[in-house]
Amino acid sequence: MTGDWMNDDLDRYADYESAFEARQPRKRKPNHKPKLDRAAQIGAVAEVGAMESGFNTTYKPGLFEEGWLLNSLKPFQDMGLLADVLGRVKGGKEANVYRCEASEMAGGGLLAAKVYRPQMFRTMKNDHVYREGRNILNSGGAALKKTDHREMRAIGKKTAYGQEVMHTSWLMHEFQTLKRLHEAGADVPRPIASAANGILMSFVGDERLSAPTLGELRLDEDEAQAAFETVERNLRLMLDLGIIHGDLSPYNLLYWEEQVILIDFPQVISVEGNPNARDLLRRDVKRLADYFSACGVDTDTDRLFASLWPDEE
Ligand SMILES: Nc1ncnc2c1ncn2[C@@H]1O[C@H](COP(=O)(O)OP(=O)(O)OP(=O)(O)O)[C@@H](O)[C@H]1O
Ligand SMILES: [Mg+2]
User: Fold this and answer.
1) Residue 195 sits in which domain range?
2) 248 and 291 housed in the same domain
3) Which of 2, 37, 84, 244 is the most buried (most CB within 10 A)?
4) CB-defined site of ligand 1, < 6 Å
5) Which of 172, 202, 232 is the last residue of a domain?
6) Single pTM value for the model
7) Are residues 297 and 177 both part of a single domain?
8) Where are the beta strands (DSSP E) in the chain?
9) Number of domains into which the chain is organized
10) Which ligand 1 atom sits closest to the C-alpha of 204?
């Protein structure tokens, strides 16, 4: 395959903070009455967001985060699931993940909240590569129908509403996939709830540490062998359900107490409906085989791929 998109999509999300930073200050006119500067304006918006959300948290979000974060998590608090936000685990390309405290009603303990970045900065290149053959999901997780004219038209015209519909669809694909995989016995976080801009799931880690990804670790041979077998089992399980992760690499595998947990599913691919499925699986397999063979596991891309996709000539 030619596949320029293969490289493109690695940095497919614009970072919204750098988008703010990239803006150059305008030249001031003489006698110009000072207005609130950009940061103060955003701060003001953030404060309104926080006050409106009425959600006080141990974690003190930054200027660019606050309104967005608290409004995104408010639905989970309203559902009675969330007691507190304790800290930010990591800012990924498309989302931030926060360590949260579950409410007593939800059984206490830690939860992970994945909060997607503001939609205005989500510019996923080549998203059609992933979307082919899969439904557009609404916030209830149901597939949009051809007769949903308003949504279909908005998507076609790429209006703000259309983008919002697509944003919800990515998020719901992640949540639905976690549900299906968890029910099928896969090694994924337990999904708990979804809302307009985030999902809540079990936290992998403890009060002090979040689980590292395999990309940050070099396992010894025995650990690597066991981890590889888990990953292989999960790849097969996904294929049995007709899906491919589509962005699998050591950076989307958490490692905690010698267990591997697969994460990050918004781009999940339908095997049946997507003509790119084979190539995307091969890319996933290559990244995994490269990593595990470097740790001393007896595997390589061709062999692993052929065992998963047996019709390969
Ligand atoms: N359930 C969880 N428990 C603990 N940490 C988590 C959990 N889910 C995600 N994380 C952490 O948050 C990071 C980002 O999560 P995820 O990969 O789902 O988002 P992302 O924005 O797609 O990231 P990237 O684009 O960098 O792959 C992960 O690398 C991991 O460190
Ligand atoms: Mg990730």
Assistant:
1) 4-17+39-202
2) yes
3) 244
4) 89-90, 92-95, 97, 112, 114, 189, 201, 203-205, 210-211, 213, 251-252, 263-264
5) 202
6) 0.83
7) no
8) 82-91, 95-102, 110-116, 191-195, 198-202, 243-244, 253-256, 259-262, 269-270
9) 2
10) 3
